[in-house]
Amino acid sequence: MDKLLIRGGRRLEGEVAISGAKNAALPELCAALLTADPVTLTNVPRLQDVSTTLKLLRNMGAKAERSEAQPDLVSLDASEVTSPEAPYDLVKTMRASILVLGPLLARFGEATVSLPGGCAIGSRPVDQHIKGLQAMGADIRVEHGYILAKAKRLKGARITTDMVTVTGTENLLMAATLAEGETVLENAAQEPEIPDLAELLIAMGAKIEGHGTSRIRIQGVEKLHGASHRIVPDRIETGTFLCAVAAAGGDVLLRDARADQLDAVIDKLREAGVAIEAGGGWIRVKGQSRPKAVSFRTSEYPAFPTDMQAQFMALNCIAEGASKVTETIFENRFMHVNELVRLGANIVVDGHTAMVQGVEQLSGAIVMATDLRASASPVIAGLVAQGETVVDRIYHLDRGYDRMEAKLRGIGADIERVK
Ligand SMILES: CC(=O)N[C@H]1[C@@H](OP(=O)(O)OP(=O)(O)OC[C@H]2O[C@@H](n3ccc(=O)[nH]c3=O)[C@H](O)[C@@H]2O)O[C@H](CO)[C@@H](O)[C@@H]1O
Ligand SMILES: C=C(OP(=O)(O)O)C(=O)O
């Protein structure tokens, strides 16, 4: 099993190119199921979840290939889908596999999708996806771990989800594009990956308004056609590199990055004393001195993202002063705390809150990646810790980060992948 070996203490200098967003790529790959025409995506990140999704689409009979000549380009062709099914073996590692449900049901009138796996950061039910599709007329049963869905043609409906759900909004949005009549999604998620998905769907001929707000209106059409689309930059990868530079110190330019989708994180970094400048398509971060501890609370976009909680906590571990980190989205998203404590951090968890007392120095140790973003936090901590840090079980990291250790090495980190 691959591990990362990090020797801490190096400043980070140079440039990093940010990849396309995992959480936009996954729904957009699934959106290709909505049409019999070819769909081409560019800026597709190279990561395990994308490979799993391509495999899932191929398993249904669709063509889904990454170009060898241009590795950020993926060609999709779902003209022939022989089995509208997502088996357990393929979906158990990845939450986003539930995103085939809406498109399959809308285009083929049936779908069999295993209840998804993904990060063990909470119970993560999919009741809102099911409730929304039922409101659109689908007949849905859950049996033996599978969602069995049928519908002649979905019918537009007004749907208010009980909570803001990102993949729930995406599934219902995709389903509604081919439904009969108008669908209104109230309490819709506003994460930037949703307007990005909507832009692809509009390029495919969908009629959508209000994407990026909490009310999305969709006029169903009979058919969608092919399109090409460039995936938005990954704001979570961007934020992870910002935290890494803030913690390790240095001066790094992030290319192909969007500051406007990361306001809450950038504001908190500035509060911590980190110098950040940004322009169209770039962000420059300078970590000059020991950061100041900053309290924050995760919430839906545009507030502080839960997917950045672990990485920012790693920064607070070595900051001057004490901070309070509150997680409001997932009930079990502090699994990185034990690992950070193994590196010498001073953290006490009480329910949804972690109290972090910054320490002057961390010391390298063997730690374990416990989920996707939780794996990035000991990497950041390892960059500043004295001595060697080994991060085990990095298959979690590989699910969602595009060659992270190569990118870190490119800006001067002493980090390597070992067996
Ligand atoms: C592939 C993808 O895009 N994953 C992201 C997506 O996950 P995901 O879409 O799974 O997260 P949701 O936004 O759906 O979850 C938000 C909250 O709603 C609850 N809930 C959700 C759906 C439902 O049917 N019932 C229900 O109770 C969840 O348990 C959670 O407490 O958004 C999360 C929150 O920004 C991010 O951490 C994930 O990286
Ligand atoms: C939690 C994440 O992924 P998933 O929703 O696929 O588990 C994540 O991207 O941080």
UniProtKB/TrEMBL annotation:
Keyword Cell division: yes
GO MF term list: UDP-N-acetylglucosamine 1-carboxyvinyltransferase activity
Catalytic activity: phosphoenolpyruvate + UDP-N-acetyl-alpha-D-glucosamine = UDP-N-acetyl-3-O-(1-carboxyvinyl)-alpha-D-glucosamine + phosphate
Pathway: Cell wall biogenesis; peptidoglycan biosynthesis
A Pfam family assignment: EPSP_synthase
Catalytic residues of the enzyme: C119 (proton donor)
Single biological process term from Gene Ontology: regulation of cell shape
Gene: murA
Record HAMAP family: MurA (MF_00111)
Residue numbers of 2-(S-cysteinyl)pyruvic acid O-phosphothioketal PTMs: C119
Protein's name in the database: UDP-N-acetylglucosamine 1-carboxyvinyltransferase
Highest taxon above the source species: Bacteria
Binding-site list for phosphoenolpyruvate: K22, N23
Entry-linked CDD domains: UdpNAET
Similarity comment: Belongs to the EPSP synthase family. MurA subfamily.
Main location: cytoplasm
EC identifiers of the protein: 2.5.1.7
